[in-house]
Amino acid sequence: MTGTARVPRVSIGLPVYNGVDYVGQSLDALLGQSFEDLEVVVSSNASTDGTDDLVRDYAARDPRVRFERLSTNLGAAANHDVVLRRARGELFKWASADDLYATDLVEQCVRLLDDHPDAVLAHSWTAAVDESGAVVQAHEYPLLTNSRRPSRRFRSMLRDGDHMPGAIRSDDFYGLVRADVLRRVRPHDSFYRADHVFVSELVLQGRFVQVPDWLYFRRHHGGRLSHDEATVRSWCASLDPRRADRLRNPTARLVGEMFTGYLGAVQRSPISAAEKRACVRHLASWAASRAGRRLGGADPGVPADEYDVVPQRRDLASRVVAGQGVGP
Known about the structure:
CATH topology: Spore Coat Polysaccharide Biosynthesis Protein SpsA, Chain A
GO molecular function: glycosyltransferase activity
EC number: 2.4.-.-
Order of helices and strands: EHEHEHEEHEEHEHHEHHHH
Number of strands: 9
Protein name: Glycosyltransferase family A protein
CATH superfamily: Spore Coat Polysaccharide Biosynthesis Protein SpsA, Chain A
CATH class: Alpha Beta
Pfam families: Glycos_transf_2
Radius of gyration: 19 Å
Shape: globular
Structural class: alpha/beta
Enzyme class: transferase
Number of helices: 11
């Protein structure tokens, strides 16, 4: 693939803003994939650190890297859409400038989608790593997104895994997706939990399949958009700077749009009327349970510092990720 003009089968979109601390490690992991028929489309959201120069250096050395810089910061949601629109591949995955990827992640996900033509997304189990790349959490995938029933997949997306300790349950947003499916769903928005709504709309388009191994490593650090100390407003404003306006976007609106977003995802989905009704019932039950927990003063989630990892797995990322110093 390298050095040819042929359209790659896989496009990886990497939106970034001030990611100089980790983006080099992420690019090393992506460009070191065993599946080489890919491109990495990087869009800098008007970064002000050394991100742009670093990525330009990678692009000069590897023609699979395509780089552009936005003149103004559009927010993370719009930048995710930018890299998707620039992508050329049949299959697409978003990548975070913070994260690490096992050498065979893309290869195994491509194989799964080839083997399961009814599936729309393939991913692996997710582990959390700290600033140094040490694994601090590793759970098996807890969701039933491979069910044949769309309403069962939707319910599992809403509810399953809430009991699990630690920072993550799953991270299907960063899975490998059929690009034509991505382009027929509503783009990533900027209201509260917009990423959850987006993935829920995808799971109503078709099944998700999983590689039963930890091949994706989500990095947790204080500068990440989804860091635990982020407020509803700061999180939404990172997705779209216009959300910082309290008058136009009060918190009630940011949260309310989440519920209407879920409802719209169900209504637009290509499933039967009976399955849509089942999804709406699951959504209503879930919304009532969340409201009850908040009114009752219950903790809305498990603290992210309650990690759960087998000590022998702490060096897992260094053993399977390209550029981390130890070969697979």
